[in-house]
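input
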Amino acid sequence: MPTKPREERRPFLAGLDLTAVAAGVVVSFALTFVASTIMALLLYNMIMSDNRLPLLEDLAGLISVVLGGWYAARRAETSGWLHGGVTGVVYVLIALTLGLALYSVPFILVTSLKRLGAGFLLGALGGVLGVNLRR
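output
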């Protein structure tokens, strides 16, 4: 009785290009820094009121994750959802770690898990767009 050839198994993250993910995270933080600098200048010059600042900071972070995922997927040229999603998760993990280290805010598990999920989903969205929207 002939035996079936054993299917070769690859680890789940075997196709992950870590340099592309790292580049996507750097792009995300650079965009966040630029957006924060612009908001600080607008706030300093009294063009913007400070009650809108938290919403705009969150929006800048979300857009940065999408664009970072897009960039990571473009560099990797494959598995856009994976590269973008991992980029979003790494971005959120670093941001949460910096926030806990620099500010005296309590760690809230549910909020952190929601942010990790949002980071993965938004990064994956950017990754899918990055791989599929070619010129």
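quick obs: The CA atoms of residues 109 and 115 lie 10 Å apart.
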